[in-house]
Amino acid sequence: MEYQDFINAVATRAKVSTDQAATLTGATLEILADRISAGQAEDLAYQLPDELADHLRRPLGRERATSFGFDEFVRRVGDRPDVDRALAGAVVPAVLSTLREAVSRDEFENAMAQLSKEFWQVIEPVGAGGGRRPGS
């Protein structure tokens, strides 16, 4: 998936402008990189355009994932510079749903396996021809 297609999909899902979608997508991917292992973040980054992948790549020395739930995830996205905190709750699910479409099913499910089940609850159901949720 191309960068602009990803951003457009997030904007459409979250009902925000493409500028807001771009800012919030970057923030969401950065927090996701904090939440999952460095290796898994790199695996996701490998399948995304550079403009998105760069948000998943951690600086050296930040190899360990930090455990926190969905509400804390949204709060951390909302706390990022240039992010409209009121939009974070709508955009995080849109970014995760779009990410599912942009990377292979195995990579997405491997990343999601590192998150609590509440993350799956906010992702849009898979349409025809899409992947599936673990356990279904």
Topology:
Elements: H1 3-14, H2 18-35, H3 38-46, H4 50-56, H5 70-78, H6 85-102, H7 105-112, H8 117-122
Helix pairs in contact: 1-2, 1-6, 2-4, 2-5, 2-6, 3-4, 3-7, 5-6
Shape: globular
Strand content: under 5%
**Average pLDDT number:** 87
Low-confidence stretches: 128-136
> Total number of helical segments?
8
The oligomerization state is single chain
Q: Please report the total strand number as a whole number.
A: 0
Tell me the Rg in angstroms: 14 Å
> Helicity level, as a percent range?
55-70%
Distance between the termini: 25 Å
Profile the largest sheet: none
Secondary-structure element pattern, one letter each: HHHHHHHH
Based on secondary structure, the structural category is: mainly alpha
Description of the structure:
There is one protein chain. This protein is mainly alpha-helical and 136 residues long. The protein is built from 8 helices and no strands. α3 (38-46) packs antiparallel against α4, α3 (38-46) packs antiparallel against α7 (105-112) and α5 packs across α6 (85-102). The two termini are 25 Å apart. 36% of the residues are buried. Mean pLDDT is 87; it is low at 128-136.
